[in-house]
């Protein structure tokens, strides 16, 4: 059984919050998942790449595990984003809350990343090379010897916006 975890940027780094970008990102995620053909995906359910992959899993029928860093992950998001998050959560094959609410947010996000990597055969990233949570996840995967496939060079938000 091939399990992949995903890590990647939020909407501001992948082209914006526009619905056409979100749709293009979802189509890109589905295309990549069809090529990679995992049996299961683990996603951290953050806005951007994580949710695009979760939506693609629903679309093409790949079971996904929602690795939630802490209870209430979406509570500060706009209502539309919260609604989308909860719709995706209902479709998850399994939901795991990695930390309790009393762990500092950055620490919970890192623990969630470690939990995902520790259960993956491969990490599928959408990473532009900048520092932040995605970088930290990839660094941890490299340390643990889990292969990382970075799709950044295949993602062109401007072209995807035109196609979307």
Strand order of the largest sheet: 4-3-2-1-5-6
- Overall CATH architecture: 3-Layer(aba) Sandwich
Largest sheet: 6 strands, parallel
- Helical element count? 7
> Which word captures the global form?
globular
Based on the model shown, name its key terms.
alpha/beta; Rossmann fold; 6-stranded parallel beta sheet; globular; about 160 residues
Report on this model:
This protein has one domain (3-163): Rossmann fold (3-Layer(aba) Sandwich). The protein has helices spanning 11-14, 19-36, 49-60, 79-91, 105-118, 133-144, 157-163, and strands at 3-8, 40-43, 64-70, 94-99, 122-126, 148-150. It is an alpha/beta fold. Strands 4-3-2-1-5-6 form a six-stranded parallel beta sheet, sandwiched between helices. The model has no long low-confidence stretch (mean pLDDT 93). α6 links the parallel β5 (122-126) and β6. α5 (105-118) runs parallel beside α6 (133-144). It starts with a strand and ends with a helix. Helices cover 49% and strands 19% of the residues.
What is the structure about, briefly put?
This protein has 164 residues and is α/β, with parallel strands linked by helices. The protein has seven helices and six strands; from the N terminus they run E-H-H-E-H-E-H-E-H-E-H-E-H. It has a single domain (3-163), classed as Rossmann fold.
């Amino acid at each position: 059984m091939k399990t992949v975890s995903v890590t990647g940027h939020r909407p501001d780094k992948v082209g914006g919050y526009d619905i056409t970008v979100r749709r293009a990102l979802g189509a890109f995620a589905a295309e990549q998942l069809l090529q990679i053909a995992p049996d299961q995906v683990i996603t951290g359910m953050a806005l951007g790449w994580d949710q695009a992959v979760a939506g693609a899993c629903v679309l093409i029928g790949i079971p996904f595990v929602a690795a939630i860093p802490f209870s209430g992950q979406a509570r500060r998001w706009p209502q539309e984003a919260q609604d989308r998050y909860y719709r995706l959560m209902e479709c998850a094959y399994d939901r795991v809350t990695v930390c309790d609410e009393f762990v500092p947010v950055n620490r919970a996000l890192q623990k969630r990343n470690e939990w995902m990597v520790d259960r993956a055969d491969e990490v599928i990233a959408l990473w532009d090379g900048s520092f932040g949570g995605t970088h930290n996840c990839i660094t941890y995967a490299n340390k643990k010897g889990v292969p990382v496939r970075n799709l950044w060079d295949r993602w062109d938000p401007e072209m995807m916006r035109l196609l979307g």
